[in-house]
Model the fold of this input.
Amino acid sequence: MPVPLIDLTRDKAQLAEVEAAVVRVVRSGQYVLGPEVENFERELQQYLGCKHALAMSSGTDALLAPLMALGIGPGDEVVLPTYSFFATAGVVARTGARPVFVDVEPRWLNVDPQRLDDALRNCRRPKAVMAVHLFGAAFDTDAVLSICRRHSVPLIEDAAQAIGTRHNGRMCGGDGLCAGWSTFPTKNLGGLGDGGFLTTNDDAFHATCRLLRNHGMAEQYKHHSIGGNFRMDALQAAALRVKLRSIEKVTEQRRENAQRYRTLFAEANLLGWAELPTDTDRHAYHQFVIRVPQAQRDPAIAHLRQQGIGCAVYYPIPFHRQPCFQHLGADPKDFPVAETAAAVTLALPIFQGLTEAEQIDVVGALKQFVR
Done:
């Protein structure tokens, strides 16, 4: 039987709860912001242990709003890893600021602290660092935060893939000035469409971002700043409230799936061929990304897909090689880890609801390919 990369419809009981929540919103007549969104924000604050949560229209907007709140614009520089989903770099460019790319470290493919420090030393107008908790593994927040303080720039955490992730015993997202999160449907906490949220422990910063979320409007038709339409729909909030109740279970299921892969790869004698992701304090496994020999990566993908097994590459083109950033003049030789990762990584199914039999099929197909 085919094995999907992700299946969002397997938890029928939860789907029924989501449907009931959607009907509740439809009947309420309150479709944008309102009580559902406010309750979702309170529940996020409790789960993440943060002072403020601000529900937003997307994870991208949850990263854009902080840059706007900081007044970042043309002539400014924001330092970020070259290996991530495009929004991390795209929001910086949208403000008119210059994204400064740095290479990632080889273990979890998160920002390399030493490279970050070097980049900040060479910047003329550094205004922020945006570091990413990639694939559900935390970056070294202690090291990165220390570097940010040394250079007097705020840290924005891109936590789009990090719901449920812990670092040094604490939930991710609370170390920097703020964190931007995504609730795109395929995320571990996924809604019924685009959505996201921002978290911060800074009262004034929260107030500024809250204004920006609704066109800078504190009272009707009176605009104190120029913001955007970054509001969350009540339908999304209602669905996410249902899903948030089971996020700990989701995290543990994904971690169990990751451990099962380790056992299956060992039993299949594939650990000499593939490098599996290592665990962290609590890796949430938004993705289970292995590394295989470069010459065999694309043929392995073709073989898996021929067998009906879902797989993907995150991310085949680092920022420094994106056509829209060629004017920045980055040299690929300055990003050896990201260059290698783009050529050898392969994501396998890891979603909650994935069965042991399906994982056996995935590993069996890879063993057949290697043999």
Summary: The radius of gyration is 21 Å. The first helix runs from residue 12 to 28. The CA atoms of residues 185 and 192 lie 6 Å apart.
